[in-house]
């Protein structure tokens, strides 16, 4: 996985980077609530210089979906 993205997710959700994997979902992370979702959105927008819209935000309920949304926005997630 992309180190930059892993770092953002670990920081926002207060997890170890080793815990971040594509199959991780909102249901798996106790700290992933609506406020953390907005922290995530702001962090991603700032880090990757993108704008996320409501449909993107709603889709981001797993790491795999976050990756999908970022790729659709043109973010290069190659390490």
Automatic annotation (TrEMBL):
<dbReference type="Pfam" id="PF00550">
    <property type="entry name" value="PP-binding"/>
</dbReference>
<dbReference type="InterPro" id="IPR009081">
    <property type="entry name" value="PP-bd_ACP"/>
</dbReference>
<feature type="domain" description="Carrier">
    <location>
        <begin position="3"/>
        <end position="69"/>
    </location>
</feature>
<dbReference type="InterPro" id="IPR036736">
    <property type="entry name" value="ACP-like_sf"/>
</dbReference>
<protein>
    <submittedName>
        <fullName>Acyl carrier protein</fullName>
    </submittedName>
</protein>
